[in-house]
Design brief:
Order of helices and strands: HHHHEHEHEHEEHEHEHEHEHEHEE
Shape: elongated
Distance between the termini: 76 Å
Structural class: alpha/beta
Largest sheet: 6 strands, parallel
Helix content: 40-55%
Number of strands: 12
CATH architecture of the largest domain: 3-Layer(aba) Sandwich
CATH topology of the largest domain: Rossmann fold
Length: 336
């Protein structure tokens, strides 16, 4: 492996001069700087980032902590962060919290041990007091998909209530009044916020969401199937179904079709996220676009900026709004 000493020997300069060129420092003449850069290119020298981190007490590294990277949603989040990392010539370190508070904290501490000052955190269960304390200790900590007023300039979040209201209004515009909801059992803010958006939209239309038309399950395809089976077993009547996310929506459509119920002829189904699966299922799923890749790229850029001492305005917020994606899983409600 080529070392800084090799570059210095071939270029006929000291290692200190090579270091100044690598770090774009001053006190190096233009001709000397050009010669050293040429040697660096010819030898294929790559600076030791670990050594640089030891000197500067930081590293050109950005960390991403998600509950479970194997899930499509969090894979998209990681892809968005990677886009910014590549553009900024930062390394990307990723870790799973596995939906456990202590694992989430351990992942953050591990990144800090690697001199990582820029971290994008999708925090599910850590309390606000803990996150506020972490933000004081970590210059570039950014919270994604969650809003904490005291950390407004550190939060990149989505207006879940507005998204749920919009998808409900869309169903209402198609004549649907009997609506069912399959939501997530996870104890974060998103399920309650989206359910609140549905309830408000219905109330404004003079309608009420019947409690027996709400089922909770795990936020995956199996959960969507189980929730619909439970609704059907209770004899619930509905012409449209709102799912917490696309995975639950696909599972719900499978369960409806297995029961001999046509989608969207008899029951319309909508999701939330606009994951790849929403275009692969049949019928293609109408859903709300959750711009998670764009949000993650933005969050990563913000984390780097904060870690370098920028963007300290406490009143600045970073709110994204979902948008409707119309496909084939919604039809006009049948007249009764």
């Amino acid at each position: 492996m080529v070392t800084i000493k090799d570059v210095a020997r071939v270029a006929g300069v000291s290692t200190a001069t090579v270091s100044r060129v690598v770090h774009d420092g001053g006190q190096v003449g233009d001709a000397c700087r050009a010669r050293v850069k040429k040697v660096i290119t010819e030898l294929g020298y790559r600076p030791n980032s670990n050594a640089r981190a030891l000197v500067s007490k930081s590293s050109e590294t950005i960390g991403v902590v998600t509950p479970k990277l194997s899930m499509t949603f969090f894979g998209c989040l990681a892809a968005g962060a990677e886009t910014t990392a590549r553009a900024k010539n930062f390394k990307l370190l990723m870790s799973n919290s596995l939906y456990e508070t202590q694992s989430e904290l351990d992942a953050i501490y591990s990144l800090r041990e690697h001199s990582c000052d820029a971290i994008v955190l999708h925090s599910e269960y850590s309390d606000e007091e803990t996150l506020i304390k972490l933000a004081k200790d970590i210059p570039g900590l950014v919270i994604i998909n969650r809003f904490i007023p005291q950390l407004a300039n550190r939060c990149v979040w989505l207006d879940n209530e507005a998204g749920a209201r919009k998808i409900t209004e869309y169903l209402l515009s198609h004549g649907h009044k009997d609506i069912a909801v399959v939501t997530s059992i996870y104890a974060n803010n998103d399920p309650a916020t989206r359910l609140n958006g549905v309830t408000k939209a219905l109330a404004e239309a003079g309608l009420e969401l019947a409690k027996h038309n709400i089922e909770s399950a795990t936020a995956n395809m199996r959960g969507g199937e189980d929730a619909v089976k439970a609704l059907l077993e209770k004899g619930c009547k509905f012409t449209a179904l709102i799912a917490y996310n696309d995975l639950m929506a696909v599972g719900a459509m499978n369960a409806l079709q297995d029961a001999g119920i046509d989608v969207p002829g008899e029951v319309s189904v909508v999701g939330f996220d606009n994951l790849y699966v929403s275009k692969a299922c049949r019928p293609n799923l109408t859903t709300m676009e959750y711009p998670i890749e764009e949000m993650a790229s933005y969050a990563a850029n913000l984390a780097i900026e904060l870690s370098q001492g920028g963007n300290q305005t406490a009143t600045k917020t970073h709110l994204f709004v979902p948008s409707l994606v119309e496909r084939q899983s919604v039809a006009l409600a049948r007249s009764t």
